[in-house]
Amino acid sequence: MIIVTAGHVDHGKSTLIRALTGMNTDRLPEEKRRGMTIDLGYAFMPLKDGSRLAFIDVPGHEKFINNMLVGVSHARHAILVLACDDGVMPQTREHLQILALLPLHSLTLVLTKRDLVDSQRAKQLTAEGLALLAEYHIEASGIFEVSATVDAVSSGVATLKAHILALGEQESVRATDASSFRMTLDRAFSVKGAGCVVTGTVISGNVCVGEHLYSSGQKAKLRVRGIHCQGQEAQAAVTGTRVALNLTGVDNHRPPERGDWLSSLPQAEHCARPVVQIRAFEHLGSEPLVHWQNVHCHHGADHTLGRISLLNEADEDGCYLAELVLDKPLLLCQDDPIVLRHIGGKQTLGAGRVLALKVPNRKKRTPERVAKLHRLACLDNPADVVGFLGQTQALELAEIAWRWQLTDEGLAMLLAQAELVRLGSFAVATSLLQREQQQFIRLLSEFHQQHPDQLGLGRNRLQRMSHSALPPELANKVLDILCQEGRMVLRGALLQLAEHRVVLDREALQCWQALAPWLAEQTAPVWITEMGEYLQLEPAKLRLLCFQLVQQGFITAVVKDRYLLSEQLCHFAGLIRCHIAQQGQLETAEFKQMVGLGRKVSIQLLEFFDRSGFTRRKYRSNSREIRDAELFFSHENWRKNIGVEPTQDCWQPYPDLKSGRLTGDDVLPIEDLGIIENAPR
Ligand SMILES: Nc1nc2c(ncn2[C@@H]2O[C@H](COP(=O)(O)OP(=O)(O)OP(=O)(O)O)[C@@H](O)[C@H]2O)c(=O)[nH]1
Ligand SMILES: [Mg+2]
């Protein structure tokens, strides 16, 4: 447990810590000379169970407010110090404002320098202190009057110490964690014989000696060689403790520095435009926020300048929704506080709580988006937030883990609580999945109605048509599930509803009935012009018919515009298979002789078989061998191979990728058919 001090300069913060712990937190020579705190100071107090409690002593002077912000950035317990002789001063108020913006577990009010005033003044000051806390809706966990420079027993220090020890014991009961290790660095230095040492506050999770951690400042992972936790050598450190880590693997060109982060999870990208909910103190006299106002942004021990892009007007609680446009991106997680100060350093304006790390480029202020952000801001529990987000979008598991800093078990627990299911590397709500499935089915069914002569749609086209909220790889998974459930069927690269059947229209059927016997009499593949002469049809019309017949698997194009019956093709394939089984290979001349056709057409046929994956031409040779004997086995089988299923009146084909008849994963629009090897035009 860590307790931070707060209060106006010279109100006795450091003296109080010395009285409590016996340790002097003002370690710098300059601090000793001037008798004031400049940078953060640390002290420790042993607890009954042998563990230790840490104090962070902050400077009270307004010039060093940046250091104070680093010290309190992840504070959960604080002591607000108020000197009896001075009373409430500007930094008393400002420090309290900053503490009020943080998710504190306890705040103890301590009136110091009690020996300098009478009891009436002390009483009056107690009332003032309480009124001040009430302004910020903070309830003190205890109020103590202390004189830290005189004998500790009679000065109230002992009572305060007892209170702090009790707080420490309560906190140690609370320490259960499913979160991963994350720490902000407030100091980094080199120790002779040990190397790089960094110190900071463990914000979540725990770390052990020997572990490797990601560092935001370094490209490589760093190994933890040694740990000091709460000022003592240790093997591990847990949430809410002050630690010093001895790291190895540090790149000395860019050594760790204040503001860096260490984490056990691979770090997400730094965020330059977080969406935040800003709690401002306008009602307590702070300047009102203005759109596009320049501000100092303090996050952990890191700092940058930025602008506030307001998304709405302040609500009744004085809260705004805003996007922070940061000069330097910060390494943010969900709900992280970002303290906003006036650009002139005059006052604290408020603090933002991180709601989202990814922002859309457009439509930022639509009523729907603002309502969604409002809803998000009202949710405190991570499971509620994840559940809410999962209703409308797929969430990447790695992103959830980073935003809420979760270990694998923590992530599993969160998903279970939020009722999300894992799908690949994503988490989605079942309701969203169902909606997407229904949308795919609806679109495909509409497509079938509009294009009864077509097999179906490719995945990409279906996804584009559905304007799916899911990323492509996840949408593919949803389609796979639909196929596994038998609601859709994948024919080659095309998806169709299970019940969909392609039929030839009446005119096409008549043409085919006339064409089939004529084609059966032909020994060689015929050109489309010959077919046109026979059927007395224009080539354009005939091409459409041929396209349908090819889809149906009745005919096959050997080269563009030259067709033969698929049955005959299988007969040729049978001859090749037989010959190669006996001879081991097939020469072009042998094939020519076997089928009794001309040289040119024989080569066209052999090259077709090569392209479709049935045969392979040997390197620098005119002979061929079998590559996939399963293809073109028999007419019936081949139809099965190309996905043909018998129906009552015709055959259901799907394009065969191996033969290259429909390349790509889409049915191309009719204008683009030219690029398909044997698609008729
Ligand atoms: N009489 C009396 N003097 C006190 C008491 N506590 C602190 N002082 C004196 O007040 C002066 C300032 O005390 P510090 O502890 O340095 O004050 P601080 O709040 O740490 O000041 P900064 O760190 O600069 O913000 C010192 O001279 C102390 O001796 C007290 O209880 N009684
Ligand atoms: Mg001090």
UniProtKB/TrEMBL annotation:
KW Electron transport (keyword) present: no
UniProt xrefs under Gene3D superfamilies: P-loop containing nucleotide triphosphate hydrolases, Translation factors, Winged helix-like DNA-binding domain superfamily/Winged helix DNA-binding domain
Highest taxon of the lineage: Bacteria
GO MF, one annotated term: translation elongation factor activity
Pfam families: Beta-barrel_SelB (PF25461), GTP_EFTU (PF00009), WHD_2nd_SelB (PF09106), WHD_2nd_SelB_bact (PF21214), WHD_3rd_SelB (PF09107)
This protein's UniProt keywords: Cytoplasm, Elongation factor, GTP-binding, Nucleotide-binding, Protein biosynthesis
Principal localisation: cytoplasm
Boundaries of every Tr-type G domain copy: 1-173
Protein name: Selenocysteine-specific translation elongation factor
Organism of derivation: Shewanella algidipiscicola
Gene encoding the protein: selB
